[in-house]
Amino acid sequence: MIKIILLAGLTLSLAGCSGYPSGTLVFVTNERAGTISVIDASKDKLIDTIMTGARPRGIRVSKNGKHAYVAISSPLNAKPKPDENRVAVYDTATGELVRNIQVGMDPEQLGVDADEKRLYVSNEDDGTLTIIDLSDGETIDTLITGIEPEGVTISPDGRRVFVMAETSSTVTVIDTSSPAVMATLLVGARPRDAAFSPDGTKAYVSAEMGQVLTVVDTTTLEILANIPLAYSPDVRPVGVAVSPDGNTVYVANGRANSVSVIDARTLQVVKNISVGQRLWGIGLAAVTGKLYTANGLSNDVSVIDTSTNKIIDTIAAGDGPWGVAVRE
Questions:
Q1: How many CB atoms lie within 10 A of CB 81?
Q2: What angle do CA 153, 224, 326 make, to 5 degrees?
Q3: Residue 7 has pLDDT above 60, yes or no
Q4: What angle do CA 265, 59, 197 make, to 5 degrees?
Q5: Lowest-pLDDT range of 15-19, 96-100, 283-287
Q6: Which residues are within 8 A (CB) of 16 and not within 5 positions of it... i.e. 6 or more apart?
Q7: HEC assignment per residue over the chain
Q8: Which of 204, 241, 243, 283 allows an S-S link to 324, with CB 3.0 to 4.6 Å?
Q9: Of 141, 98, 97, nearest in space to 123 by CA
């Protein structure tokens, strides 16, 4: 059984109980600081800092916009402790901690289904995916994935979960109705993240060391293309986002300090946008058309206007920005 643990006093929110403004908010995990930066997208201003403790990385906002789910593991360079491996759930209206759910060792990324009934968490050290019933916090199943699983992305129809494993360079495809592993795909070296097209027919998988974006047909599970991104030796593709119309794919290029803008119809890179240092996660605000990048070395967030593909703002974050999730 998975335990749900309420930790009083762990969340210290600057906003207190007054609550956040309505509209689009951006939540950025800061891996080294053990915090979440909360940004008001209407002004692109930092409005709160939530103290999570330990090492927060992967973050998702539920489809209904009510909760932010954060994967938290032991601090960097510290001996791993099982009780530090958890998913923290926050109220996106106030920043308050709702509950903590214990998971496997070193959770990195996660996905929550559209109905907020199931949570899928990659456990990097265990080589597993934990599937949790959110009604009671119990484990539905633990599935074996590739070696060192990281990215977790749910298809738009909720029928498939893609789990990217960096060391085995594989994508484990989960059938959510079983749940069970239905296929394992070999992709570019060191896959990190994936994003689906809005209609769910394609998945775009970043390969950090392969320096490509792999396009997968989600019906046949065949590789359609590998889009080369290595305009520089420093390109290390990680975070991926797709525009609401499905025509554009954005890829965070890690140490190259840039975002590649890809035309999904021609599968060509149309621009590389310079941003902050060593960006990791990215998040797209559909309502405002702005892309936010978590820049892990410059400790800030770059804001890109996707209509012009230009940076319009830079927002200071905590130490080691890692993941980005948007509430709309």
A1: 12
A2: 25
A3: no
A4: 15
A5: 15-19
A6: none
A7: CCCEECCCCCCCECCCCCCCCCCCEEEEEECCCCEEEEEECCCCEEEEEEECCCEEEEEEECCCCCEEEEEEECCCCCCCCHHHCEEEEEECCCCCEEEEEECCCCEEEEEECCCCCEEEEEECCCCEEEEEECCCCCEEEEEECCCCEEEEEECCCCCEEEEEECCCCEEEEEECCCCEEEEEEECCCCEEEEEECCCCCEEEEEECCCCEEEEEECCCCEEEEEEECCCCCCCCCCCEEECCCCCEEEEECECCCEEEEEECCCCEEEEEEECCCCEEEEEEECCCCEEEEEECCCCEEEEEECCCCEEEEEEECCCCEEEEEEEC
A8: 283
A9: 141
**Contact indicator for 186, 169 with CB cutoff of 8 Å:** yes
DSSP 297-308: TTTEEEEEETTT
Strand partners, 59: 70
3-state helix, strand, coil in the chain (%, to 5): 0, 55, 45
Mean of per-residue pLDDT scores for the chain: 93
Helix (H) or strand (E) holding 131: strand 128-133
Q: Residue 179, preceding bond cis, omega within 30 degrees?
A: yes
Pairing mode, if any, of strands 222-228 and 212-217?
A: antiparallel
**Tokens 């609401």 -> residue:** 244
Express each pLDDT in 129-150 by its tens digit.
999 999 999 999 999 999 999 9
